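[step 3/7] inverse_fold.run input=structure_tokens len=282
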């Protein structure tokens, strides 16, 4: 009983109002749930209060962001309304470390929340992270396939136009970013049609095959061979024929020795992985 009265006191005195369109009473009701003690949740939500960072711990917002998927899983998607404002506050935090933490876990949160909530509440945040600093963008890039596979096909296709942007980084020497892009594109082949692969992913793959860093190029050879395999199995044979003709034209007949070497390595990967029947390969 003593505990109940204490919790009631803390809960009533917590000023967690973040949205001026609601009265304090409505704001409080929107964050009420019955899964965990309300005072505990209120204390968690107050971690985004800037005064906490000054008086308790400068890293407190980062800790809050790190725990958020676990809190969301505990409360369940039916109580997402309790966390939504806090999530949006963290997603626009001035510290990139806080935004980076959310970027690395947004795919996990999407699984917890399901299709509708992801489309409505997470996709706008995801789009913001795509335009953020490289330290934040790498979080969404590392789990790009995990997030996009949860979206509806039409929504997923919208991101085809933005994949090219991952080739541009704040620091051009950040080759690991491009290597991660090549790894993700291999996984993304399963999510898109033959035409989309040919129109959007092929130019990026060819660009990565000519990268200055050998580690990026080696992953890209694998990417091109998987692309050949996927297009060969497609119902329209013209895509794989056009792709192979372009490989010959762009690399085999390249005036630089490095381009011709790239062609040999791609051929090696295609034959080793059995991406084509040998008569087609020949």
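[step 3/7] decode complete -> sequence:
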């Amino acid at each position: 009983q003593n505990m109940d009265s204490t919790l009631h006191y803390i809960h009533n005195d917590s000023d967690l109002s973040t949205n001026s369109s609601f009265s304090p009473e409505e704001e409080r009701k929107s964050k009420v749930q019955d899964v965990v003690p309300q005072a505990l949740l209120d204390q968690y939500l107050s971690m985004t209060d800037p005064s906490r960072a000054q008086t308790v711990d400068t890293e407190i917002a980062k800790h809050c962001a790190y725990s958020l998927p676990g809190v969301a899983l505990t409360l369940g998607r039916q109580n997402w309304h309790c966390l939504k404002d806090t999530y949006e506050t963290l997603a626009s935090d001035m510290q990139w470390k806080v935004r980076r933490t959310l970027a690395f876990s947004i795919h996990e949160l999407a699984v917890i929340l399901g299709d509708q909530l992801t489309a409505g509440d997470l996709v706008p945040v995801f789009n913001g992270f795509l335009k953020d600093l490289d330290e934040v963008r790498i979080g969404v890039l590392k789990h790009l396939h995990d997030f996009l596979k949860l979206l509806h096909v039409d929504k997923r296709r919208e991101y085809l136009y933005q994949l090219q942007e991952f080739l541009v980084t704040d620091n051009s020497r950040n080759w690991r970013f491009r290597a991660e892009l090549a790894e993700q594109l291999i996984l993304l082949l399963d999510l898109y049609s033959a035409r989309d692969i040919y129109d959007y992913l092929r130019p990026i793959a060819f660009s990565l095959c000519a990268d200055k860093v050998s580690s990026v190029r080696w992953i890209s050879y694998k990417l091109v061979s998987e692309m050949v395999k996927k297009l060969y199995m497609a119902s329209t044979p013209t895509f794989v024929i056009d792709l192979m003709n372009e490989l010959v034209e762009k690399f085999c007949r390249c005036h630089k020795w490095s381009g011709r070497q790239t062609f040999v390595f791609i051929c090696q990967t295609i034959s080793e992985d059995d991406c084509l029947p040998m008569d087609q390969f020949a």
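[step 4/7] annotate
The mean pLDDT is 87.
Residues 172-281 form one domain.
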